[in-house]
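From the pipeline queue, job 12 of 40. The input is one protein chain; the requested action is below.

Action: predict structure.
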Amino acid sequence: MNARVLSLMAILAVTLVGCSGTTATQGAKTGATYELKMAMRKLWEEHITYTRNYIISAVAGLQDVDKVAERLLKNQDDIGGAIKPYYGDEAGNKLAALLRDHILIATEVVTAARAGNHDALAAGQEKWTANGKDIAAFLSGANPYWFKQDLESMLQKHLDLTTAEVVGRLNQDWAADIGAYDEGHEHMLMFADALSEGIAKQFPDKIK
């Protein structure tokens, strides 16, 4: 075998090793991004699921309502904890506090709707919208890939669909209730994906 052929084989071997390393790195990155996406989806699915459980229990006056609320509030702490590796403890605690307010206001909205208190309901929904804007402002300030206007729109749609669930159950319009939940579930997964994608873009070195 002549020297030229040996040289070409050596170059090919180095190239293949380099490509293999790149592929492995990309595969690891893709796997880590997928894991982040699934973890974020799980947290926000719990958010939408336990919110629904609370609505069902509160509207029906079931005895488990306080325990459901307790579990729902824990989910907000879990979501805050999920961003701590990227944004720190203070930011994680701040998000958890904003989300806890989101849930506490939701209980006011459900209570007012169940009692037929239109003034209290309107006041609660106004507070809910303001809280959603606070969450959007906080998140958009933390990550340049999370746009404030988009977040506000997504969070408001979440509130509107949650309200539709409450109204559907109160009116015993089960089709409307289930439809609102199904749409809200899909919407929440989209919201979770937007968050995980933003984190992956902002912290590529941490998604390994």
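Job complete. Residues 57 and 64 are 7 Å apart (CA to CA).
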